[in-house]
Amino acid sequence: MAVATKRAPQKYAPFARLLSSEHEELLDRLGDHREAVLVERVPDDTVGLASRTLLEDLAIGTLQRDQQLLREVEAALGRLYAGDYGVCERCREDIPGRRLKALPWTRLCLRCAERRQALSLN
């Protein structure tokens, strides 16, 4: 596989649409999550309070995951328009189209992602 060079965003137009769509969806979901967390209802009993606390914790966890994903999508859009999209940040080789289709915001090729995962498990 050849080392990648900067390329015009046109080659990745389908990914730009995918990323833009994901970006809009995440913004909508984040608004919904924030509303769910901000709605204040005082439960009448201990079970209600425990249930409310659990639901708030779940909503906050989902909110945090979606915020992280939004940052990844925005970074991918930035790489796309800078001409660095589709290039592994670690080895600088092309990221295969199949991986980009599965994870359009990825920064790493599969080999480098697996290496990173293996290191984090040790």
Explain how this protein is built.
With 122 residues, this protein is mostly helical. It has a domain at 9-85. It has helices spanning 13-38, 46-82, 97-102, 110-121. The radius of gyration is 19 Å and the shape is elongated. Residues 1-8 have low confidence and may be disordered.
Please name the defining characteristics of this protein:
122 residues, mainly alpha, 4 helices, elongated, disordered N terminus
Question: Which SSEs are present, and which pair or pack?
Answer:
Blueprint: H1 13-38, H2 46-82, H3 97-102, H4 110-121
Helix pairs in contact: 1-2
Largest sheet: none
Query: Structural class per helix/strand content?
Result: mainly alpha
Number of helices: 4
- Calculate the terminal CA-CA distance, rounded to whole Å: 29 Å
What is Rg? Answer: 19 Å
Summarize the structure.
The protein is an all-alpha fold.
